[in-house]
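user: can you give me the structure for this one chain? tokens are fine.
assistant: on it. calling the predictor now.
[tool input]
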Amino acid sequence: MAFLKKNLVYVILLLVVLAFALIKPLREFVSSQFAMTATVDKVVAESSFSDEDFDIDLKGINTPNAKLSDFKGQIVFLNFWGTWCAPCRTEWPSIEALYQSKNSKMAFVLIAMQDKEDDVKRFVTENHYTAPVYIAESPLTSKMLPNVFPTTYIVGRNLQILKKEDSTLDWNSDSSQAFVDSVTK
């Protein structure tokens, strides 16, 4: 008994080490909790959209109706905005300029959110914008639903997220143009 009292800490440590060595589910759980590297599947899932995310019916405002999934296999400029959003309205001229210069290299899908269809039509018409504008007619997945406006994704041919911007950006800047050129080759 004296031996056990003197060496209690060592006995407990020995039992813990043996438990990890002999109980495979425990070992795997602890390993997964302390691992510092993410699994490839997790990285891919976090940096890509799924087919479900792209299953959205779109009502065209200045373009025909579509499904977002129609654009799979293309590079997609996907922007969530609203006429009520001052930063979105500020960003629009640079998006239109990017559309004018790059619409042959990638698809443009600008989705007006939390907006009335008439307000969107009026905004597009009054400003002479030609980039394709839609209103989502089906729910967005939590991964797709923006937290702030504007939110823009540049999505690759296999639905990978090549760029996410959740603030206003000059999409007609030299760096934005260069980025688009690099991903649309």
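assistant: here you go. The CA atoms of residues 1 and 97 lie 83 Å apart. The first helix runs from residue 2 to 6.
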